[in-house]
Design a protein that fits this description.
It contains 17 helices and five strands. By secondary structure, the protein is mainly alpha-helical.
Length: 428
């Protein structure tokens, strides 16, 4: 198959529009922790399809869409009712409702399929490979029948988000504030769920209900790892959905695999990459920040030990410490050795044979650490009924995080008196 043929471009355009539409509206499910609702609605359209044919005797697109949309809205309403009446958690109520409706839908669609050409597998898995062959005339141009539907869906979801973005944002993060401001958060949520149902209904014929579940959740979840701002999350989810569709389609062509399955794999791969390498919430970023924090604490521990030795010994502030002792004082071996090397490189300590000694700059840095430690010990001693041997450990932890303004506020409150152990608090 030539990936640059017109049929392939139509297929790719339909898949990208569908993925972007699902990603945009699915973001609001992710931030409200209602991702399972997308799964529920996408599966509960089956009884709507069967009921629409039984009632109308036709499988026209309008009848099928109306039946499936009604089933999607009914799922959300039934879940809320079961939660309220049965006093169940929302996820449990949703699980009961959508699995029951899905089972009923499978039976109905299987029975209906004996009378008409309706493939249950197509409803579940979609038929992206052939979607561009079903054509209609639009402004004199022959286009796939799914394309106007997907374009209208994308435009509708985008218009809804743009016009009601303030209400959607407040209702998503603080429903009580939304109600206090004059609009009911439940109504906003119902509008979002209706949009999710419409998105599922319009998309399932082309990509199948199972892929809709992946597209409603994965792009939004990936965007949440990349940004904390809702507007940017929505834009990222749309872009990630479209890129997942593109990458999945190209991968399916290269491997001669199912297009819908490859799009879901691409969306999952995007999430895994974001989970690993996102600038703020990725595993690698968190590991780097943890390592950097460990190194900073190790450096400050070495400085603090050297300063305290200088208070005791005849060498004064220029205390010396065996390198092996410094490594042990700084904690973990890898962090300690690297911390000592960084202190030398920054000019805070100097090497004297096998010993480390504070430089004048190092004395100033160490004084700030010890000052924070002893100020906090004094504050705890004055305000909490703690024995003296319980003051050191919390102060040793907090000394690394005490801001400058807090140090000076404590110093003004404590005055010139020594710390609880009788040691002088270093001056500013």
């Amino acid at each position: 198959m030539n990936v640059f043929s017109l049929i392939d471009w139509w297929t790719l355009c339909i898949a990208a529009l569908c993925a972007a539409s699902c990603g945009m509206i699915g973001t609001f499910l992710v931030v409200r922790r209602l991702s399972l609702m997308g799964d529920a609605i996408s599966h509960s359209v089956l009884p709507g399809l069967g009921a629409a044919f039984i009632l109308t005797g036709t499988r026209s697109p309008a009848a099928m869409m109306a039946g499936a949309l009604a089933a999607g809205v009914l799922t959300a309403a039934l879940a809320a009712g079961v939660k309220r009446i049965g006093r169940l958690p929302y996820d449990a109520a949703l699980g009961v409702v959508f699995t029951s409706l899905f089972a009923v839908g499978v039976l109905m669609v299987t029975w209906v399929a004996q009378s008409i050409d309706l493939d249950p597998g197509c409803v579940l898995y979609g038929l992206l490979e052939l979607v561009s062959l079903d054509r209609v005339e639009v402004l004199g141009v022959s286009v796939p029948r799914a394309l106007p539907w997907q374009a209208g869906l994308f435009a509708g979801n985008l218009l809804l988000i743009v016009l009601l973005f303030k209400e959607l944002r407040i209702a998503s993060f603080d429903p009580h504030l939304a109600t206090a401001l004059g609009f009911h958060a439940g109504a906003v949520q119902a509008l979002v769920l209706t949009a999710v149902a419409a998105t599922t209904v319009v998309s399932f014929e082309a990509v199948g209900s199972i892929l809709v579940v992946a597209l409603l959740v994965a792009p939004g979840a990936t965007a949440q790892l990349l940004s904390d701002r809702l507007g940017r999350m929505v834009a990222l989810a749309a872009g990630l959905g479209a890129s997942a569709a593109t990458l999945g389609y190209l991968g399916a062509v290269a491997l001669n695999a199912n297009i819908a399955g490859m799009i879901a794999v691409a969306a999952g791969a995007q999430f895994l990459l974001a989970a690993a390498f996102a600038p703020r919430y990725g595993v690698a970023a968190r590991a780097f920040r943890h390592a950097a924090l460990s190194l900073r604490i190790a450096r400050e521990d070495v400085l603090g030990v050297l300063y305290r030795l200088g208070e005791r010994g005849p060498t004064g502030a220029h205390a010396v410490l065996q390198h092996a002792q410094a490594v042990r004082a700084a904690g973990a071996t890898w962090a300690a050795r690297l911390a000592c090397a960084q202190l030398r490189r920054r000019g805070l300590v100097e090497q004297r044979g096998d010993e480390l000694a504070l430089t004048p700059r190092g004395v100033d840095a160490a004084r700030r650490i010890v000052r924070a430690h002893r100020l906090w010990e004094s504050y705890l001693s004055q305000n909490l009924p703690l024995p003296l041997d319980h003051l050191h450990d919390p102060s040793e932890r907090f000394e690394h995080f005490m801001p400058e303004d807090m140090r000076e506020q404590l110093a003004a409150e404590i005055g010139d008196q020594p710390d609880p152990h009788g040691r002088e608090i270093p001056p500013r």
